[in-house]
DNA sequence: CTTGACCTTCACATTGATGTGAAGGTTTGA
DNA sequence: TCAAACCTTCACATCAATGTGAAGGTCAAG
């Protein structure tokens, strides 16, 4: 598919699809006329990228993480240098931290909303 | 405590403590000489702020969330406008999305690391 | 064969979170 | 009393992600 369709299907501005490519996160083919030609799996991939960006990860890190999501993954094993392994371990830790923080705050918001609801209900009677 | 101590105890540059204040996230008192004077609870608060920023939330949203974490919370109920409630509900949704995304990717990294470990182990024998 | 809807590259602007440092006031201890 | 170690405000710089738009090539339908 071309950039317009990928943009539609992922809700992502064309500008950013080109930016993600520049950062090495997606690698579209090129048609004879120079147009980018995206394989179907890029829809999921772009959604993943956006999700991770939204969760605070920079493109530099996302680039390291993406190969973990590709299946079959066996292809990448030889590339797995010790440094890369260490980086992934570290990032997994940081993601755990983020998850803990978000969960805590999400629950606190939930408790607050419940309390407000109960308060309003009591007021109304 | 003064800004230097808070900076030390939270691992946060002074510059950013002033920035968070400017954004309305913390409200230190002022000593007679003009120095900022932070109450002890600000240590936790700043850690919270940094965690949420790291998880991709902008200060504008964090400002809305912070009151949910204060106890006792009853004080804030009258301030809870319908718009605020709606905002909090929406943000809770977005935080859920982030948690799902991070969890999925963290698990994928874990699987990948396990697979690499198994692969290396097999190689070594 | 031209018009409209695509696509290309390129450049510049903006925004939010940060870094850096100047110029100057305050406090504490030698 | 002076130096070191704090603090203040203010201004300007940077970085990553994103917005905006110009100048121009491609292609399908009328």
From TrEMBL, chains A, B:
Q: What is this protein called?
A: DNA-binding transcriptional MerR regulator
Q: Report which superkingdom the organism of origin falls in.
A: Bacteria
Domain spans labelled HTH merR-type: 1-68
UniProt entry tagged with the keyword DNA-binding: yes
CDD domains tied to this protein: HTH_MerR-like_sg3 (cd01282)
Arranged from A to Z, the UniProt key words for this protein are: DNA-binding
> Under the GO molecular function aspect, what terms does this record hold?
DNA binding; DNA-binding transcription factor activity
């Amino acid at each position: 598919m071309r950039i317009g369709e990928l943009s539609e299907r992922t809700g992502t501005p064309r500008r950013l699809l080109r930016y993600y490519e520049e950062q090495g996160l997606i690698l579209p083919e090129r048609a004879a006329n120079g147009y980018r030609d995206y394989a179907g799996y890029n829809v999921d991939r772009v959604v993943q990228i956006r999700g991770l960006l939204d969760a605070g990860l920079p493109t530099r890190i996302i680039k390291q993480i993406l190969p973990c999501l590709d299946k079959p993954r066996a292809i990448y094993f030889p590339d797995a240098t010790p440094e890369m392994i260490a980086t992934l371990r570290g990032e997994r830790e940081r993601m755990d931290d983020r998850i803990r923080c978000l969960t805590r705050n999400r629950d606190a918001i939930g408790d607050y909303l419940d309390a407000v609801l109960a308060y309003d209900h009591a007021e109304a009677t």
